[in-house]
């Protein structure tokens, strides 16, 4: 809690004036995972806009009090171009028409994908920080990730099975960042045991005959959670907050810590 309060104070520092106000320039992000990096490595005045998802409690990876200090961007080409940013950082899933509009407007654009591992996430942090002109900030985030990996990696040979539900009946499969973090702390992702090779739907009825050692979910109360509690009364169920699921980068250290705590509690 103390570290969280310190981080919030640092992120809020210097945000009294509206970031991005004035005659253009700065960086616009339409990707909430990019937002989580930028707010930690740049002065607020250099951030002209962030994704509106970062201002949504179910989608953000940064404190809402911080996100709401910035202009929220829905992601339309018109609103981004109107800000005349020096750089736009967006997702590789940005519609081609929007990308073409950025190009016609002469905007410098960086597109980033979804990392599938801790190493890929760290490479993306470096890419974002270099593009933003703040390489030392990226190096600082990656050093924090390295320390967390070293601290929370578990190698005692015991690998209890776990299922991690992102939302409802949507469970994470292999070849994902969440899977990498689960295995680092000593879990075995049980998704493959039920035929789920990628992230997808996995109902409680499917796992009831062969439950995992623990079910991890992002929600305390939902239809899926209630059903799993009813059908799996003897299976431990733990909460992994949605704010730790949405992105990698700076979210990795607290995510590893939470997963390690769940494993230690079995």
Provide an overview of this structure.
By secondary structure, the protein is an alpha/beta fold. Helices cover 40% and strands 15% of the residues. It has helices at residues 2-12, 32-41, 64-67, 77-82, 96-104, 118-131, 135-152, 177-184, 204-207, 223-231, 252-264, and strands spanning 27-29, 47-51, 72-73, 87-91, 109-112, 161-167, 170-171, 188-189, 200-201, 214-217, 237-239. Strands 6, 7, 8, 9, 10 and 11 form a six-stranded mixed sheet that branches. Strand 4 (87-91), helix 5 (96-104) and strand 5 (109-112) form a beta-alpha-beta unit. Helix 6 (118-131) packs antiparallel against helix 7 (135-152) and helix 7 (135-152) packs parallel to helix 11. The longest helix has 18 residues, at 135-152. The two termini are 23 Å apart.
């Amino acid at each position: 809690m103390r570290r969280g309060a310190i981080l919030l104070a640092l992120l809020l520092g210097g945000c009294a004036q509206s970031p991005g106000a004035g005659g253009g320039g700065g960086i616009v992000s339409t990707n909430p995972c990019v937002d989580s990096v930028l707010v930690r490595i740049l002065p607020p005045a250099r951030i002209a806009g962030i994704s509106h998802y970062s201002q949504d409690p179910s989608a953000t990876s940064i404190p809402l009090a911080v996100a709401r200090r910035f202009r929220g961007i829905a992601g339309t080409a018109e609103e981004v171009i109107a800000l005349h940013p020096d750089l736009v950082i967006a997702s590789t899933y940005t519609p081609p028409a929007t990308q073409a509009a950025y190009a016609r407007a002469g905007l410098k654009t960086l597109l980033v994908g979804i990392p599938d591992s801790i190493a890929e996430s760290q490479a993306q942090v470096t890419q974002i920080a270099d593009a933003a002109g703040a390489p030392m900030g990226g190096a600082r985030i990656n050093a924090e990730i390295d320390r967390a990996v070293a601290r929370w990696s578990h190698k005692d040979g015991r690998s209890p099975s776990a299922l991690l539900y992102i939302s409802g009946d949507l469970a994470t499969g292999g070849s994902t960042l969440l899977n990498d973090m689960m295995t680092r702390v000593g879990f075995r992702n049980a998704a493959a045991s039920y035929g789920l090779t990628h992230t997808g739907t996995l109902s409680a009825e499917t796992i009831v005959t062969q439950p995992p050692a623990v079910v991890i979910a992002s929600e305390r109360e939902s239809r899926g959670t209630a059903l799993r509690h009813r059908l799996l009364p003897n299976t431990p169920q733990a909460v992994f907050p949605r704010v730790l699921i949405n992105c990698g980068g700076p979210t990795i250290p607290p995510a590893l810590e939470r997963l390690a705590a769940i494993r230690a509690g079995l």
